[in-house]
Amino acid sequence: MGWNDLFQEIMKNHRGKAIGILLGLILGLFTVVLGFFKTFLVAICISIGYILGRRVDDDEDFKNWIDKILH
Question: In this structure, are 46 and 70 located in the same domain?
Answer without folding.
Answer: yes
